[in-house]
Amino acid sequence: MNTLKQGDAVPNFEVNDENGQLIKLADYKGKKWVVFFYPAASTPTCTVEACNIRDHYKELSNAGYEVLGVSADTQKKQSNFKSKHGFQYPLIADVDKVMINAFGVWGSKKFMGRTFDGIHRKTFIINEKGVVERVIDTVKAKEHAAQILG
Asked: Is 51 annotated as catalytic?
């Protein structure tokens, strides 16, 4: 797993959000943005994490951040997740793992004594030049927005 680090430029990408709208790196030129990767929509910890960002979205927006949530779920699953919880930000349906691989968050994981490949829960704070300013490697789902703003 070759995860982007502080100081790395974000590689070019083109992916679809929950509505099938094309989202690309160029859309964020000149903007500060946050990309958070989560293993699966509608699972308990991912829901808490995404809802924490929803609940503090105004503070993130006031700090100048745009937000993108990314998992390998289908557009339908992402759309249902967004509708059910009222998220104000796009959810990327990265079924082909374009962003997941570009940011280097796919790799070996352990859970309940089992080893498997999956998405590592990580968040990237990116500046107006498309460079990673900070990586949150240990996301605290209930305090995620505070970690981003901190």
From this structure: no
pTM for this one?
0.95
Q: Which CATH architecture has domain 14-149?
A: 3-Layer(aba) Sandwich (3.40)
Of 33, 15, 17, 5, nearest to 129 by C-alpha is: 33
**What residue spans define the domains of the chain?**
14-149
E strands in the chain = 14-16, 22-24, 32-37, 65-71, 91-93, 106-111, 114-119, 122-126, 132-136
pLDDT one-digit tens code per residue, 79-98 = 999 999 999 999 999 999 99
> Which residue of the set 4, 23, 35, 46 is catalytic?
46
**SS3 state at 89:** coil
Structure tokens, 21: 């709208």
